[in-house]
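Quick entry between incubations.
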Amino acid sequence: VTWVNVVVQGLLLGGLYALFATGLSLMFGVMRLVNLAHGDLSILAAFLALVIVDAVPVNPLWTLLVVAPLMGAVGYLLQRGLLNFTLRGTDPLPPVLVTFGLSIILQNLLLELFSADSQGLDAGRIENASVRLSDRLAVGWFPLLTLVVAVGVLVGLQLLLRRTRLGRAFRATSDDPEAARLVGLDHRHVFAMATAIALATVAVAGIFLGVRTTFAPSIGPTRLIFAFEAVIIGGLGSIWGTLAGGLVLGVAQTLGAQLSPGWGVLAGHLVFLAVLAFRPTGLLGRTVPA
Amino acid sequence: MTQPEQAAVAPPRVQRATLPSRVGLVGGLAVVAVLALGPLWALDSVLRTLISVFTLLALAQMWNLLAGYAGLVSIGQQAYVGLGAYGLVFLADTVGLPLLAAVLVAGVVGTLVAVPTALLAFRLRGGYFAIGTWVIAEVYRLVIANASQLGGGSGLTLRAASAYDRTARLYLTYELALAVGTGAVAGSYLLLRRRLGLALTAIRDGEQSAQSLGVHVYRTKFLVYLVAAFGCSLAGAVIYLHLLRVQPEAAFSVNWTAFMIFIVVIGGVGTIEGPIIGTIVFFVLQETLAGYGAWYLVLLGAVAVLVTVAARRGLWGLVADRTGWSLFPVQRRLEET
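Done. Structure below.
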């Protein structure tokens, strides 16, 4: 066993987790909404890509051009048509119940439409191609691409938050929704835009997942849990924390799986619990989410 | 000219029971008595269905106590179903306790595990608390699935049950299920009528103001979490005393909590009547839609979403708003004398 190799593979896996965590983190940051259907929405995106690939023979990565805007539109409508109604008042119950209900609905709809079989997206040669860095260390092009895309998405989000009108609206609404309303921001629209962007990133995550491994309607909740762990390990309200959290989770899982095949996911959970016990603000977290 | 007010108005009396609640109490006791005699009048198949009904009612009532009264929206209560199940099998087969004792001790084991669970999960709030409890339930599932002494991923069979006659075991399980179901309802009711109920109401209306009035917010929530863990562990043990075969995937399935949530939300969250109505509706739906596969979960999910957005207080809320009835009055009403 070369431990360097295990850690490198873990970091690459972590790129995928960071991609999953981005949308969850954004939605919580802007409107304190924890979307329990997050994982199932990513699986929905993967199935949408599958439908397109079955109809038109293109590389599944190209379907992103359609699926990401489509999921963004779904996000906008979902937020304006449903989720906004759960955010009136301070009761924590409605958002949790509604998004959990959505998760169950999506999971079982996908099950009825596509059966419980595992599916995959075939991206061709890039899936197995790798670059050999030394005789013991090889890095797959596709996992590397995933990590690069994750960093790209996070940098893009950071620029959006810091440099654009929309980003300013996000930050203003996050800091003080009342005051934001007073200066003329329509919080319903701002929230819906945040969900739209979050679900576009979820589409990217879902399709990269589908290319990397197989997927089935039932695996959404696991994706939600990994995304959540990455957010908490990294620290609420920190974009680079989300990346760090994803990487730490990926390394923990590959190291655990190296010790015993059944321990991979468990090792990730234990790192999450350790962070919760000893550093509840996360590795790079601030106490107040931005 | 001013009236001396003390003479005109008698001090109000605190009223803690209503006519529907008195009628309901007598009726409820009668129903429980008739159900307790179930083995005398019901077919075995009916008893089996009722075992599921009573245990689900217990689970739902516990989730209601957590989410409806303490504001703790857990998606990890399946942890206690699984721990109760494995506790029962381990205590009965390996330790050699009699079945009844094994069920009770399994409940205690679940409660003990709930202590460190709560210490960790209480660091999270709202939606993140929900996922956090879910992750911790997954940890317990994975630990058990990796423990070869507990049968690993393929699980265990309750061998101690084979010492009992089939019918005797069915009757024992039935009476235990009834006890857990009615115990969950009566226990929640009595608990909420005490000071704890007042403390929870105060917390629900405003955590900081409750704290400033001397309510121990953390301690109160912690206590409710332990009570719910105890109830769910007991119910889990009784469910698997009935099913006999326990596997980590099924015993720790998040579907247990999904069912609790659907029942409570549809029946009416934050009322004791709600979960009772919800359980009945849930079973009727389940039986009616049994042939439609996963569509019934799609429908249940959709109903739960609709109820949450459009009729927050569920079916019982609709009834109570129209009639003003309260079968389990936990509030204190002031009555002019």
